[in-house]
Amino acid sequence: MKKLLGLVASLLLLSGFLYAGVKALTPKQTVNSKKTLVLYNWGAYLDPALIKKFERQTGYHVVYETFDSNESMLTKIRQGGTSYDLAVPSDYTIAKMRREHLLQPLNKKRLSNWKYLDKQCLNRSFDPDNRYSVPYFWGTLGIVYNDKKIQPETLKSWNDLWQRRYRKQILLVDSARDIMGMVLISEGKSMNATSSVDLKLAEAKLVALSPNVKAIVGDEMRMYLEQGDAALGVTWSGEAAQMMQNNHHLRYFVPAEGSNLWFDNLVIPKNARHVQAAYAFINFMLQPDNAARNAAYIGYATPNWRAKQLLSKRHQLEPQLYQTNLRHLTVYRDLQPSKLQEYNDLFLNFKMSSH
Amino acid sequence: MRSKSSFFIIPYVLWLLLFVVMPMILLAVNAFTNGQGQVSLVNLRAFLTNGACLKMMVNSFWYAVLITGLTLLISYPLALVIAHCRHQRVWLLLVILPTWINLLLKTYAFIGLLGQHGLINQALQLIGLAPRQLLFTKTAFVIVAAYIEIPFMVLPIYNSLHALDQQIIAAARDLGASSWQTFWRVVWPLTLPGVRAGVQAVFIPSLSLFMITRLIGGNKVITLGTAIEEYFLTTMNWHMGSMIGVILIVIMVLVLLATSGKEQNK
């Protein structure tokens, strides 16, 4: 009897606990006033001063939540537990979200500042006609090098990375898609290659690079290159921009064979609660002086041509960050999960064989 | 009396159910289902037939052995010395002190020490040696991991040394044992439980280290922890990630059994 009582009591307690958990985990925005905007963005990807300015101008209260990968953001939006009013996915994730009907179509009549957007950044394959997304920042994948240690003449193409003189000098960004893509393009293949033979060959070529690879790292690459711990790095333009601000011997370039072109765009998820606030914010960010300020703060390339003009008045823009010819650059397509797995498995194989 | 004690046990049982049993069940369910939610052994087969996965498993095991061995090699003499010191508490505190600092911070400190312009290379330059590559080597990885694990090895060994009856040692010496014989035939067997506890406390976490593999090992040391991170975060293949988790648990259970098997002989 006592055992039974104990069991009942524990069950009651358990359900009470779970109820409290549900209460704590459901978003509280429902009770909040309409004057909020829940923004879901990459960490440190917006000048905080602009949030203050937006709040002052419009009276909306901004809740800034962050994620560190497209995948984790996607999982949270799919679950729908929290409703975000704006999110900032990258190109291939936008395609995925569009297919899964997670996004609201945009009403461009409500965006009076749309005209400032650079044509180059619009109407891309992942979102034709920009029905769902507004460009926020864009960039490329390229090579950062220290001009004290590397002569620029010796380094022109991706294939130059395989030269013996760079033994143990190269840092690679820890991203299967980007590094495999780099090898594919060095072989004249598409960065979206799906042929298993091409991928396998790319892995073999990557293994041949491993004597030159010093390490495969994440955000720490910035620190190593700035401090001169390594002479070369393969990374994204925005990362490079931030490194170059701190170490003037660093240079960035995109090899002529081509590279990846990526976009981070603003989207309104389907279950957004404060759509009006979302539009207000998009329009606010499209205002040239705000976009310029944000780009100056973050260091990535702005898709806003007027903001770019404003920036170039203040100081010389790095031509490699603001490439004018994007023909040779490829945007990642959203690959099948099994293909993506193949990319990652091959990359993991390469990591294990690098000694 | 009994009902009272069972009442107080409820929160712990709940805790165990929610945060130990439930996650294990979820892990097992994920590991033995495929993407369509059907029960299958496809992940296990994928693991066992994938050379990379097997190699990673061997790698993890080997590095855990190295780390544990190095930790033991440093910790046992240290514990022995501390047990014979005058201010034992102060020394112990100094051993424990690093655990008050966040793991990531300690790792970053090592990046500063081992870097191309780090303290160690500067010292080498002072005595005329050229700066060498210390970071991103396997040796560096094992040393840093061992440094982090040392307190968890020293404490149980110290405790068993401390609990040792000094009269036993006196008796051994009295009966003509040399100091080496005393150590090897008396002290070491009697402190073996502490060593076992230390080995378990170090070996098991070492199996699934993953942050240090990237920060210090530069992703040139790949263990199952790295693989789990990749399967969960990059490719979103939670089923395979869970399978690796299950396999890690199995290895850990085996290690526990192997290191505690002889306990009954006492």
Coarse shape of chain A: globular
Number-wise, the strands of chain A total 10
CATH architecture of the largest domain in chain A: 3-Layer(aba) Sandwich
CATH class of the largest domain in chain A: Alpha Beta
- Which two chains share the most extensive interface? A-B, 38 and 36 residues
Integer average pLDDT of chain B:
89
CATH topology call of the largest domain in chain B = MetI-like fold
Q: Could you give a short account of the major beta sheet of chain A?
A: 7 strands, mixed
- Kindly report how far apart the N and C termini of chain A lie: 65 Å
Could you tell me the radius of gyration of chain A in angstroms?
Answer: 23 Å
Secondary-structure-based class of chain A equals: alpha/beta
Which structural class do the helices and strands of chain B define? mainly alpha
Can you describe this structure?
The complex is a heterodimer of chains A (355) and B (266). With 355 residues, chain A is α/β, with parallel strands linked by helices. Chain A folds into 2 domains: 5-138 and 263-316, D-Maltodextrin-Binding Protein, domain 2 (3-Layer(aba) Sandwich), CATH 3.40.190; 139-260 and 320-354, 3-Layer(aba) Sandwich (D-Maltodextrin-Binding Protein, domain 2), CATH 3.40.190. Chain A has helices at 2-25, 48-58, 70-79, 91-99, 176-186, 196-209, 221-226, 237-246, 275-286, 288-298, 305-314, 337-353; strands spanning 36-42, 61-67, 86-87, 133-146, 170-173, 213-217, 232-236, 250-253, 259-267, 329-330. In chain A, the strands form 2 sheets. In chain A, strands 4, 5, 6, 7, 8, 9 and 10 form a 7-stranded mixed β-sheet that branches. A 3-stranded parallel β-sheet of chain A has the order 2-1-3. In chain A, helix 5 packs across helix 12, helix 6 packs parallel to helix 12 and helix 10 packs across helix 11. In chain B, helix 1 (2-31) packs across helix 12, helix 2 packs across helix 12 and helix 7 packs across helix 9. The mean pLDDT of chain B is 89. The A-B interface holds A 2-3, 6, 9-10, 13-14, 17, 69, 71-72, 75, 168, 174, 176, 214-218, 220, 223-224, 227-230, 337, 340-341, 344-345, 348-349, 351-352, 354-355 and B 2-3, 6-7, 10-11, 13-14, 17-18, 50, 52, 55-56, 59, 111, 115-117, 133, 135-136, 214-215, 218-220, 222, 226-227, 230, 233-237.
